[in-house]
Amino acid sequence: MNDPVLQTPERPRRLARPLMLGRLGAVLSLILILLTVFSVTIIESGQSAVLIRPGADQPRVISSPGMYLRIPFVERVWLIDTRLQTTEQIEPQSCITADQQTLRLSAWMAWRVTDPVRFQAMSLTDKSVLDERLRKTLGEAFAAWAATQPATTLLKGQADVISMSGLADLNQRLSTLGVAAVQAGLRQVGLPDAGEETIYARMSASNNRNSRQLIEGLKADERQLVTLQNRQQTQVLDEAYRTAQQTRQSAEAQLLVAYGRQFGQPNGVAEILRNPPRPTSKSDN
User: Fold this and answer.
1) pTM for the whole thing?
2) Does any domain span residue 271?
3) 101 is a domain residue
4) Last residue of a domain, one of 82, 113, 138
5) Does the residue 130 lie in any domain?
6) Measured between alpha carbons, how far is 72 from 39 in angstroms, rounded to an integer?
7) Does 56 lie in the same domain as 109?
8) For residue 166, which of 190, 188, 130, 137 has the smallest C-alpha distance?
9) Are both 89 and 115 inside the same structural domain?
10) Of the candidates 87, 195, 95, 89, the residue with the CA atom closest to the CA atom of residue 153
């Protein structure tokens, strides 16, 4: 009969084997899941994938949306946004027009990626460097296009959108970056600092001249108003004086008539009314 005490050490070994197998299975499952995740590339609408394999002559470009398999940790995939994007100049640049006028222009463009491989190579180091190159290329193309346009056309907004020849020149410059412009135009048109200062000086002088003319006109109107008021005041006083004289003469006539009826000597009374006697002063002899 076997001793149960001697059989006790073999039980942990029997229990450890399934536990180790379970752990190994979990690790293998995790590895398979990671391999599956890194083996699948999902390309959405508006994207292109650039797949690079070591030793391959050319990268592989996938443009159709869908789910694709790749060799994990061997093939590297870059997803490129091929949708329409915009770039604009932040600061205006000085440009010489066809009539030798200097203007400050800032431009914009709507573009999309046409060569994913070249675009991926340009944007591999730093995206800010690519953005700066896009703005620089845009500025160079618009400076060349502005040299064919008169200043009045640009200032009046008659050429907000670049011409077909200008767009073709812009796309030729952008081809080295792997992109193409769909549309481009002017974002801002202005005069140089010296020209703006001259215009501001003229506007200030014109405003000062208009202000002086307005003040002088107001003073002239005030003088005319005072003259008119004085004239009206004189006319009112003259009219009042004439009215008083007429009233006095009418009262004197009525008084003479009444006195003549009473005493019969109107002429003497009339003379007294016209020339009243002056009081005589008494002097000591």
Assistant:
1) 0.57
2) no
3) yes
4) 82
5) yes
6) 5
7) no
8) 137
9) yes
10) 95
Residue type for position 46: G
Residue 227: which region, alpha, beta or left (left: phi > 0; alpha: psi -120 to 50)? alpha
CA gap 116, 250 in Å, rounded: 117
Assigned token pair, 268: 């003497």
Among 191, 216, 242, residue at a domain's last position: 191
Range of the domain at 111: 85-191
What's the domain count of the chain? 2
Burial of 203 (0-12, 13-18, 19+ CB in 10 A): exposed
End-to-end Cα distance, the chain: 193
Q: How many CA atoms are closer than 13 Å to the CA of 25, on its beta-carbon side?
A: 6
Tens digits of pLDDT across the chain (285 residues): 444 444 455 555 555 666 666 677 777 777 777 777 777 888 889 899 898 888 778 888 888 888 888 877 788 888 999 999 999 998 899 999 999 998 999 999 999 999 999 998 888 777 788 899 999 999 999 999 999 999 888 888 766 788 888 999 999 999 999 999 999 999 888 887 655 555 555 666 667 677 777 887 777 778 777 787 787 778 777 787 788 777 877 777 777 667 666 666 555 555 665 566 565 555 444
Residue 22 identity: G
Is 214 within a domain? no
Amino acid, single-letter form, for residue 38: F
